[in-house]
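Sequence in, structure out. Go.
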Amino acid sequence: MLSALALFGIMVLTFLDVSGRKIWSQSISGSLEITELLMVIVIFGALPLVSLKGEHVVFDSLDVLLPRKVQKIQQGLVHFACAALMLALAYLMWTTGADFAAAGETTAQLKISKAPFIQGMGVLCGLTGLVHLTKVFWHTEDASSEGGTL
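Output:
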């Protein structure tokens, strides 16, 4: 839901920005910065859902050659590696956000604080890591809808 709202916000902002430039020769100040921050929300907000539903891009051409038991072990190892990487990334983003908050880092034009967005990315990466960690121990068949959307 959060990603959908952010994506809708990008669409409306882009429409208004382009219309303003064409009709009144005036663009919206800081529209690029707002779009960048909304893209963070779109991408990282959808990441836990993509992981939960197993909607990642997967190279599985060789899976037909592997026995089912080996495939389950392989999937468990992949989920474990993803969990470890996402949890490490969550930690790094959280600490980077804290550093940015301490330094008072803001966007260049609108002076929006970057820290909440970076720490939000960390929280969503942590949630994604927990999704993968649960899939290591409670493996279910990924009900991915080939070619489907969220």
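Check: The mean pLDDT is 92. The longest helix spans residues 68-103.
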